[in-house]
Design goal:
This protein is α/β, with parallel strands linked by helices. The protein has two domains: about 110 residues, Response regulator (Rossmann fold, 3-Layer(aba) Sandwich), CATH 3.40.50; about 90 residues, Four Helix Bundle (Hemerythrin (Met), subunit A) (Up-down Bundle). Helices cover about 60% and strands about 10% of the residues. The chain contains ten helices and five strands. Strands 2-1-3-4-5 form a five-stranded parallel beta sheet, with helices on both faces.
Length: about 220
Amino acid sequence: MLKYLFVEDQFIIIELLKELAHSLRLNFEITETAEQALQLIKQHHFDVVISDYLLPCMNGAALTKAILEIKAETRVYLCTSSIKEKDAEQFLTFGGLGIINKPLTKSKLEKVISKVQPQNNVTESIHKKYLPKYVQFLSSELNNLEKLVSEKKVGANGDDLHHAIHCIKGAADVMNDQTLSHLCKQLLDKESACYAPDQFDSFLNTIKNFIRSNSDS
C-alpha cells in the first residue's frame, strides 16, 4: 500500500485533506511545513508527496528539489491555487510530476492515485525482482551520459544522447519510476542543443540520487 505525505499549512484545507484521505482509505500523514516534511522524508518512506506551493520558509519547487535529493524515487505533486509559469517550469525541471489546481477534490485526488498506484501485484513483483538490475543499468548509463558531457557531445552528437535517454525512459517505464520517466520525456521533447543546463543537471542528479538511495537493495 502506497504511503502519502501531504504538506499544507492552512487549517481548513488540512481538515479537508484528512476527510478526503480517509474516504479513499489512504495511508497518509500531514505536515504543515517544508522543514517538517523533509524530516519525515529522511526518517520514513513515502511514495507520494502532495504539497502546497506557498509554504513558510520554502516554496513547493524548492521542497521538491530537496525531497528528490533525499529520496529520488518519490513522486511529488503540487496543489496550489496560484503559481507563476516560471515557477511551474522550475518545479517540473526539478522532477515534479504535476500541478493540481486548488481546491483539491476527491476526483482530482483519485486521478493522482490512478497514476501512481501499481495496477496489480505483477508490477510490484517486477519492481522488487529487477530493482538491483535497474540500479546497475542506471549506473552504467550514468557513466555513459557523463562521458558524453565530458566529451562535449551533448549538442554535437545528439543522436547518442537521445538514444541513451530513450533507453533510460524505457527502463523507467517498466519499473514504474515516474519521476525519472517524466524527466526523460521533458528532455526527449526538446532538441539536444536546447537542453537547459539546470534541466540536464537535474536529470543527472535524479539518477545519482536514485542509485544512492537503492544501492543496498
